[in-house]
Design goal:
Elements lengths: L1 H7 L2 H26 L8 H10 L7 H26 L8 H16 L8 H33 L3 H20 L8 E2 L7 E2 L2 H4 L8 H4 L8 H18 L1 H11 L1 H6 L4 H24 L17 H12 L4 H19 L10 H44 L5 E4 L12 E4 L9
Antiparallel strand pairs: 1-2, 3-4
Helix pairs in contact: 2-16, 4-10, 4-13, 4-14, 4-15, 5-6, 5-7, 5-13, 5-14, 6-7, 6-13, 10-11, 10-15, 11-13, 14-15, 15-16
């Protein structure tokens, strides 16, 4: 019974409950929104609800659609992990889009410049090299706002916004060089696209997952994402490094007083965040079916960098929870894009997601208020109990001294007034 009480009183359980309640309320609001707007011409409420809830399972080729949704959730998992690991250190990493692009640029420069067609062993090593160098580039890019925050006290949000646009402009500028014209796809009348990694043979291994899912883009990247999430959970909860980072996130002054290296934790957190966002970009664009338009990269930032923020917040920045939050986020977003089949606006899904995120934030606010109320009651009851002990308001106890005959080691024995005999008066 006590174990059950401690489980339900656990902070992690309350956070999970708050997230689930937010999802349920958000979906209910989505259904209400579809019902209210179903009076528009040609709209089909039943079909809209079916598409919203069944997602890929409402399609004929549901296995292929499911595989694509899992694949497109992988970069979202990595950007969510990037946001989450910084947030738990007391930082807000809004620089994930720039880190995403930096990792993509470096990995593509490696994978597209080396021809590994017909050389499967070399292809694996080139793919690993592209992944490692892309991650290292993202870590160095994330270290810039981390170092400026640690040494100069400059707000990381301001620096991240600037580094985002620097990375986007540098992406276009690099591939504009004449020496890289051989990387540009000029076939089929295309303009401004790079060739795919399938041309050079340095793609992410598929492990036949694309065949199992009837021609989807699914590859082994989903297993890499799960592995990284598990490793981050272990780092956060089972190591001194993770404890030190969480201590800085909860209260940097207390952490500093206890001997924690605040500046080192800031730099480490932002470097890790940058590397995670970069891996998301690497794995996404190293897929043989994905191509990137390089000539317009300077004009807009990749949405994956920003979509990781609600995924992390919905999961309360828990690495394992971010996997499920990202899959749910992608599932709902893809379902929303199919709402046009029922003559609904495809952006309804974004409104549902926004309602879920806002509801999640308010739920945690009320959970924190409830926890503070419980702690306040506990402290008040403890003070009352201590008052009873010090003022003698508990059942009256008196000490009956032992006679000297009983020896010097005799200890007074407490008895109540009711236990006294009349002769002892």
């Amino acid at each position: 019974m006590n174990k059950a009480k401690s489980f339900f009183a656990n902070h992690n359980f309350s956070s999970i409950l708050a997230s689930l309640a937010s999802i349920v309320v958000g979906l209910i609001l989505g259904v209400i929104l579809l019902a209210v707007t179903s009076f528009a011409p040609n709209t089909d409420l039943g079909e809209g609800i079916k598409i919203l809830f069944l997602g890929p399972f409402a399609q004929t080729s549901w296995l292929q659609a499911l595989g694509n949704r899992i694949f497109y959730a992988v970069p979202l998992i990595f950007t969510g992990l990037s946001v989450g690991i910084a947030y738990k250190t007391g930082l807000f990493n809004i620089g994930a889009p720039g880190q995403f692009l930096v990792g993509t640029r470096v990995s593509l420069l490696v994978a597209l410049n080396i021809n590994s067609i017909g050389k499967p062993v070399q292809a694996v090593f080139v793919w690993l090299l592209a992944l490692v160098l892309g991650r290292l580039a993202g870590a160095l890019w994330g270290l810039i706002p981390g170092a400026l925050k640690a040494f100069l006290g400059i707000n990381e949000v301001i620096i991240c916004i600037r580094t985002n646009w620097i990375a986007a402009n540098r992406f276009t500028w690099i591939f504009e060089l004449k020496s890289l014209d051989h990387l540009k796809n000029t076939l089929s009348g295309k303009s401004g696209y790079l060739i795919q990694t399938s041309v050079t043979g340095n793609s992410t291994p598929t492990w036949n997952l694309n065949v199992l899912t009837k021609g989807s883009s699914l590859d082994c990247s989903i297993f890499i994402a799960i592995l990284f999430a598990i490793l981050l959970w272990l780092l956060r909860n089972k190591t001194t490094i993770g404890y030190s980072r969480r201590a800085c996130g909860l209260n940097k002054f207390s952490a500093r007083y206890s001997g924690r290296k605040e500046k080192g934790n800031i730099r480490l957190a932002m470097a890790l965040a940058g590397s995670l966002a970069a891996i998301g970009g690497c794995l996404y664009y190293l897929n043989p079916n994905i191509e990137i338009k390089w000539d317009s990269a300077y004009a807009s930032l990749p949405s994956y960098g920003f979509d990781g923020i609600p995924a992390a917040l919905l999961a309360n920045c828990n690495p394992i929870g971010i996997i499920f939050a990202s899959l749910f986020r992608r599932y709902l977003s893809s379902s929303g894009s199919s709402l046009a089949l029922a003559h609904y606006n495809q952006y309804y899904a974004d409104r549902i997601i926004a309602a879920i995120i806002y509801r999640s934030g308010f739920s945690r606010f009320f959970v924190e208020l409830y926890n503070r109320y419980r702690q306040k009651n506990h402290n008040r009851n403890s003070k009352i109990l201590m008052g009873y002990l010090t003022e003698g308001l508990l059942p009256n106890l008196t000490l009956v001294a032992k006679t000297p005959a009983e020896g010097p080691s005799a200890v007074p024995t407490p008895v109540t007034q009711g236990d006294k005999k009349e002769g002892d008066k």
